[in-house]
Amino acid sequence: MQHHPCCLLCDQAPETMRHLLMDCTFARQTWHEVLTWLGVQIPTPNNEATLMDWWLRSTQAATTLQCKALASVTETSSLDDLEAQ
Ligand SMILES: [Zn+2]
């Protein structure tokens, strides 16, 4: 199966899992839109080493209701799988 080496969304960086979930301009905009839509005032994933680090930091700062909202959009049960790739 042929694989494009650069991100197909921005064409500015290698297409890695981290780039697609955290670093890509389009990913960052998507996170911003989703968090705004949920009314969750948590910074978008940015300088964390992994998405799981962001998740853990965010859930510590969020209310219970915000945690439920985050869990519904991130499907936290699959984060371990994503981080392992
Ligand atoms: Zn990109």
TrEMBL record:
InterPro entries: RVT-Znf. It comes from the Eukaryota. Residues 2-31 form the Reverse transcriptase zinc-binding domain. Pfam families: zf-RVT (PF13966). This is Reverse transcriptase zinc-binding domain-containing protein. It comes from Aegilops tauschii subsp. strangulata. The lineage of its organism: Eukaryota, Viridiplantae, Streptophyta, Embryophyta, Tracheophyta.
